[in-house]
Design brief:
7 helices, 0% strand, elongated
């Protein structure tokens, strides 16, 4: 069967479905991480404390990570639109996105309660992914090869954007020491005071 192009509704639908899912995550992720930590620590006591500390997530961390992931999803949709859905990049991200929805639902079952993104996973993410894959197959575009790439791309992308967001939001002072930017009524300290805070604390 000869390949034909799919519509932009299919290709840009990926980005639209991602926006719906990640708006839910943006609103709930940081608050859920704080409230769920005691329950998770009780359920998994063998996990070292340093691992839980690394999982700390501020609203700013969540926003930056979601913004970075948005760039990846927009690039995949744009490449899909440019190639009529034939792009290997688009197909891999599409398959990975569908798996992402399934992971959301599995996490909720394991946690036995709400987890960020689970409301839009079965209502938007999975239905869109199944529909888009069907449209690609109807156009003669195979998606079976995207599964292997998605198995690597999905976890790498999630870990990468969160690590980069954490790094962006934890700048270094003039002496090279890492410090946590304090928030005072939602404002960052004025330039030039970045290294004064640690000095005052040690005085």
């Amino acid at each position: 069967m000869a390949e034909t192009a799919v519509s932009r509704t299919v290709t840009w639908g990926l980005f639209a479905a991602w926006v719906a899912n990640d708006l839910e995550e943006l609103v709930t992720m940081a608050r859920w991480a704080r409230s769920a930590r005691p329950r998770l620590q009780e359920r998994f006591p063998a996990v070292p404390e340093r691992i839980w500390e690394r999982m700390e997530l501020s609203q700013r961390d969540a926003a930056v990570a979601i913004g970075l992931m948005g760039g990846l999803m927009a690039a995949a949709s744009a490449d899909g639109a440019r190639t009529g859905g034939r792009s290997p990049f688009f197909r891999s991200v599409l398959v990975g996105f569908g798996w992402h929805g399934a992971v959301h639902m599995a996490q909720t079952l394991a946690y036995r309660g709400y987890t960020p993104g689970v409301l839009t996973a079965p209502t938007v993410v999975v239905p869109y992914s199944v529909w888009a894959v069907r449209k690609l197959k109807e156009a003669g575009i195979r998606t079976d090869g995207g599964g292997r790439a998605a198995a690597v791309l999905l976890p790498a992308a999630v870990i990468g954007v969160h690590a980069l967001a954490h790094r962006i939001n934890r700048p270094r002072g003039r002496d090279g020491a890492r410090w946590r930017a304090p928030l005072f009524r939602g404002r960052l300290p004025r330039p030039g005071r970045a290294c004064e805070e640690p000095a005052r604390q040690g005085a």
